[in-house]
Write a structure and sequence with these properties.
The structure is a single chain. Helices cover 32% and strands 23% of the residues. With 234 residues, it is an alpha+beta fold. It has one domain (3-231): Alpha-Beta Complex (Cyclic Phosphodiesterase, Chain: A), CATH 3.90.1140. The chain has a 4-stranded antiparallel beta sheet with strand order 4-1-9-10. A hairpin with a 5-residue loop joins β9 and β10.
């Protein structure tokens, strides 16, 4: 069964996408793998270990978690995504910045944006309750089910993801690295990222224009690639 996710992807020509993909060492649009940008400073193996699972997904913001769907539900899944996109207008995210500390993964480096039109949270809720509810299995979260609190288990059984990640607990973020061993290392690499890239130093890097939703599928190499785009036309 295909493992699919629904993401916001920055435009491939944007500075934010170019820099973020270079830091991750993976271009999600083309499926191209490169040495992470800071590998020269810290070593390729070390940097890839620190980037961790974030590399599999490329530079993105999650709207619908990576779960598997039964083949007989795929047409319905596409129809629901098209319906959602038809009722969502293109929008802009502003004030791009690094998270000082990301609660879901404290030893990570993530970025976030403001949503002045207030579109993203309701969009996420539609995708979870209309699309993700069709999930069949949850390969990324099922192994951790025994660690979930009761409320998180209820959400998992219904949507394939724990409650602390979705719906009222949703947090818009783009991950650049997810697996640092400690806070000191995280801060050191964060400073190196700023020195190397100057990310968010210009106004163009702090604004994203979103005109489509993307469905991605996990490939045999475990990395995700876009397999469908749903233009926003609400």
């Amino acid at each position: 069964m295909p493992v699919l996710s629904i993401y916001l992807l920055p435009a491939p020509e944007s500075d934010f996408y170019r820099i973020g993909s270079a830091l991750l060492g993976y271009d999600v649009y083309s499926g191209t793998h490169t040495r992470p940008l800071l590998a020269a400073q810290y070593g390729n193996d070390t940097m890839q270990a620190w980037i961790g699972i974030a590399r599999l997904f490329g530079l993105h913001a999650t709207l619908g978690e990576a779960v598997s769907y039964a083949p007989h539900d795929l047409d319905e899944l596409h129809a629901r995504m098209d319906w959602i996109a038809s009722r969502t207008p293109p929008f802009a995210l502003t004030n791009g910045r690094f998270h000082d500390s990301f609660a879901l993964r404290p030893y990570s480096i993530t970025t976030t944006f403001d949503d002045p039109a207030g579109i993203v949270a309701p969009l996420h809720q539609r995708i979870v309750t209309m699309v993700q509810v069709l999930y069949d299995t949850s390969p990324f979260f099922a192994p951790h089910l025994h660690t979930f609190a009761a409320a998180d288990r209820i959400a998992f059984y219904r949507y394939g993801a724990p409650g602390y990640r979705i719906l009222q607990n949703f947090s818009l973020h783009f991950s650049l690295a997810s697996s640092f061993p400690d806070w000191r290392t995280r801060q050191q690499v964060h400073r190196a990222m700023l020195e190397e890239t100057g990310l968010f130093c210009s106004a163009t890097q702090r604004t994203l224009h979103i005109d489509a939703l993307y469905m991605l599928e996990q490939q045999p190499d475990r990395h995700f690639r876009p397999v469908a785009a749903f233009p926003l036309r609400g």
